[in-house]
């Protein structure tokens, strides 16, 4: 059972590890930046994983604009999902003397030497959305409640299957099952993928146990379900293989747990190409998602993709900027979680933001009425 600790990391943190390294004299950024310097004299180094994923472009744009609006200089680099490139980019930022580092890692365990160098240069480090692991030199973490993302994805799957009603309680007219479902996970080198998976599996497990849900392929371990680098094409190929191998004799696939929208679209492509669908109303299996990408919001509006999880990158960027400002002033950033995110060496103080489940019956309110997307963007499926 999930106990509000990261299940995949085994180290137990000491009480001292809860302190902010930049302010406590140990770990990353020991001594801290020049707290008397004006924003215009300080540069924030921002390391982003890739521009091929819509949400990271939005994150980068929001962070850069927010920091520059406050007068800071910004050195922002995208590594296009290449670990050595990200390592080199962060090395360059450290060597150039940035005031603070904001890192959305490709592989959270691959930057130990860069974090050591940042600590030696007294540069504080904020992990952005993806936890930096196996290092004491991480000062703060801003993210969403990623375990809850998985819970919501599982609930969205069961709502789409008719097992839960609109209040997400057991439906009176729920199908008895067994209902065949397949499971997809994200990239194993992304700590969030493990949290999404655990939240979903904890929620679905009772339905597996009583036989209501069945994974016909028996691929129920995260290693079997993982999708390296969150690639759409990889997810599509795996779905095609699952259909060919396990659903070639009239077996019915009811739903697919997908942890992210690019994977969802690849899965949907495979399902539609196999003659399932083309819409939910016409028999397409229920497919979940995450990140509320515009192409998937159109699919939800069109009755194709069943759901997604909206993580408002505007609020994440705002919180990251507030945290960076606090550190640059020599203050501790506000944390609302000091227990969950054990990175293998220490518990990293964190700020967790809320998430929203997006369905066909609420996408207008959440995604359009809020101003995140325009009606024209939803209609076209493009920004």
Write the SSE topology.
Layout: H1 21-24, E1 43-48, H2 54-69, E2 73-78, H3 83-96, E3 100-103, H4 112-120, E4 125-128, E5 140-144, H5 146-161, E6 179-183, H6 191-209, E7 213-214, H7 222-225, H8 232-246, E8 253-257, H9 261-273, E9 286-287, H10 294-301, E10 307-310, H11 313-328, E11 350-353, E12 356-359, H12 363-368, H13 375-380
Parallel strand pairs: 1-2, 1-3, 3-4, 4-5, 5-11, 6-7, 6-8, 8-9
Antiparallel strand pairs: 10-12
Helix pairs in contact: 2-11, 5-6, 8-9
Could you give a short description of this structure?
With 383 residues, the protein is an alpha/beta fold.
Report on this model:
The chain has 383 residues and is of the alpha/beta class. The protein contains 13 helices and 12 strands. The strands form 3 sheets. A 6-stranded parallel sheet has the order 2-1-3-4-5-11, with helices on both faces. Helix 2 (54-69) crosses helix 11 (313-328). It is elongated, with a radius of gyration of 21 Å. The two termini are 40 Å apart.
Please name the defining characteristics of this protein.
single chain, 383 residues, alpha/beta, six-stranded parallel sheet, elongated, disordered N terminus
- Helix-strand string: HEHEHEHEEHEHEHHEHEHEHEEHH
Query: Roughly how much helix do the residues carry, as a percent range?
Result: 25-40%
Please indicate the percent range of residues in DSSP E strands (runs of 2 or more): 5-15%
Structural class: alpha/beta
Q: Name the overall outline.
A: elongated
Number of helices: 13
What's the average pLDDT? 92
The end-to-end span amounts to: 40 Å
Please compute the radius of gyration using only Cα atoms: 21 Å
Parts with pLDDT < 50 across at least 5 consecutive residues: 1-32
Question: How many beta-strand runs?
Answer: 12
Strand order, main sheet: write it out: 2-1-3-4-5-11
Give the biggest sheet: 6 strands, parallel
